[in-house]
Amino acid sequence: MFISEAYAQTAAGGDPTTAVFMQMLPLILIVVVFYFFLIRPQQQARKRHMEMIANLKRGDVVVTSGGFIGKIKSVQDDEARVELAPNVEVRVVRGTIAEVRGKTDPAPANDSKPE
Predict the structure, then answer these.
(1) pTM of the full predicted structure?
(2) What would the 3-class secondary structure string for the chain be?
(3) pLDDT: is 71 or 17 the higher one?
């Protein structure tokens, strides 16, 4: 009786597709930020780790994920033999090698030693 009926209206001159886009914009920005700050760096770190594991060779000084430091004696398909101390060798899965500390370079074959 005393209350007039109210009808829903869009804003004057407003386009409904623009309103939907403006509501989705924060969600799109969050996805972009997550990609550049979380997902992409993690993918790059994994790629570097896989390349490091693929390039392991005999004589490299490595650190395992358990914290052991040793020298690689041999490398098979999915594992490596690591010498932790003289006459102490362990077999480790290649994926558990966290870091290569020292890469060995082949010694020159015919060069004389510097004096």
Answers:
(1) 0.66
(2) CCCCCCCCCCCCCCCHHHHHHHHHHHHHHHHHHHHHHHHHHHHHHHHHHHHHHHCCCCCCEEEECCCCEEEEEEECCCEEEEEEECCEEEEEEHHHEEEEEECCCCCCCCCCCCC
(3) 71
